[in-house]
Amino acid sequence: MSTQSSNSSARQRRMIFAALGGAGLLAVCLCFAVAVVAGVYYFWGRGETETQAAVEYILDASPRMLNPASGGTRLSVAQAILAEIVRPADTTLTAGLRVFGTGAVAQPCQDTSLIVPLAQANQSQIADNLFTVSAGSAADAALAEAMVNAIRDLAAMPGSPTLVVVTGGADSCNEQAGELIKAEAQRAGIQLQMFVVGFMVEEAEAEAVKGLIDESAGGAYVDAPDAETLRNVLT
User: Cα separation of 38 and 127, whole Å?
Assistant: First the structure.
């Protein structure tokens, strides 16, 4: 009788130890699962931060932008609308502002300047600097040079950066403008999203800009014949 009781007690102890061991293993597995999920969310969150959106704006400030528009010149209207759109934009956005045709560079076909470097939450700086831009006097318009330089600016940005151009016409400096832009985009190795807006551009000039975009293999041209359309397009 005592032998049977001893065997029963031994079996009970083995069952208790087995249950405790199973519970411990389950706890370890649960901790591991929690750690994996936390790690996924951590690195996912980091990935979202690292692929944060970036955009560079280009504004044409060549003499053609002094042509009259409703409410001022093409340049003054474009400045006001772009500032209106940019200022309240998402402050997590990395943005910058480049211009061409201001006369800041002696050679007209190289006349482009990054007046607000790419940085996060600098929408107010871009909006304020837009109103400091004055049109130059040289007839040539270095649209392609500005776009090539903008691609270089954006080359270090992760994800798919965006280039937004407001121009009053085509490039007048290089017949291979589209090829130059395409080559620079390939060299930079970025998935560039490119939008070129022609503000009050004549039909022949618009066709030339469209040709440039087609040759550059990636991007869209949008015609904005008036201020309201420009505002809607940029919005």
Answer: 40
